[in-house]
């Protein structure tokens, strides 16, 4: 395999940039949903469906292409993910109705699904020796940080510059072209086998993993439900219930959850290794309760506080849960189990918000949002009970969670 540029910090952080750019593109539409709604007359249920098809694209790409980079190499898959991301930009800025928006969201999901697994592994493999131990953190930071910057980026452009439904996608398209150059400069880390075998990513849950997977999966499900809610429903709540129509404010509220999650993933290494997952669940629960208080009393300050707390807890619980699940998995089934864990997360980020859209049509957005918060709180409590009974899913090897 080629080692062109290996060990260069500039080349490495170029790859980090490419990962972040791809994830930025997946959440850019969040603060723009009110504009689409006003232009095309979408209902809140339609908005949640638009968001959910993104997650369907992610899951399809994870299952179909999850193992392809081991055969074809990391760079071809990264190029493919960037190409699909750029294509989604073209679709969005020419969107004339629901069909093209749905198509654009599916493309965004496919790009994220291709990148999530491939880029994470690539950044760990590419990390120069001097920052090798930070490889996983840079990968997760590019992922979650990109998701958080997307709404802020699009919200600021929509609020202060013309063509709010065109300019964000044009600029992101240009960033994707720059990301192509960054990936081109990065070395390949995989030697392609003589006979390429492209297989679907198998999902698995061996018996010995279930005791760890169930509470970790419930915690991940609860955390990603909150992510789904704030990227799909929060714009409508802020506008209809609180009267905020500033796109930057909407993008900021939606984005800070992911930024806080990134901080939580960084700082969780300072917590006791066997207690990180229950600590994360407890913090997530506190954040959800604060969000519910803010929703019920229509207090933006309480909502933002809750989002920051919930995001931090999500980051702690997600990284700790993923590490514990990977550590408990047999070596020959680890990739399959981790893929199953990600599928649980993306089911949580998509389909529950459709339920919020349906409930909002019958009960109103405020009542539906409060009910949603209650369900998340119950899931957090269930995960905490299971974790405390099981000793917090103490990993067999501390390094599994540290990295």
Automatic annotation (TrEMBL):
List the transmembrane segments.
7-25, 45-65, 77-96, 102-124, 136-157, 169-187, 208-236, 248-267, 279-296, 302-325, 337-361, 367-388
Which InterPro entries does the UniProt record give? Answer: MFS (IPR011701), MFS_dom (IPR020846), MFS_trans_sf (IPR036259), MFS_Transporters (IPR050171), Sugar_transporter_CS (IPR005829)
> What superkingdom heads the lineage?
Bacteria
What subcellular locations does the record give?
Cell membrane
**Which positions fall inside the Major facilitator superfamily (MFS) profile domain?**
11-392
- Ribosomal protein in keyword set: no
Sorted UniProt keywords: Cell membrane, Membrane, Transmembrane, Transmembrane helix, Transport
This protein's major location comes to: membrane
A Pfam family it matches: MFS_1
Q: How does it sit in the membrane?
A: Multi-pass membrane protein
Q: What is this protein called?
A: MFS family permease
Source species, please? Rhodopseudomonas julia
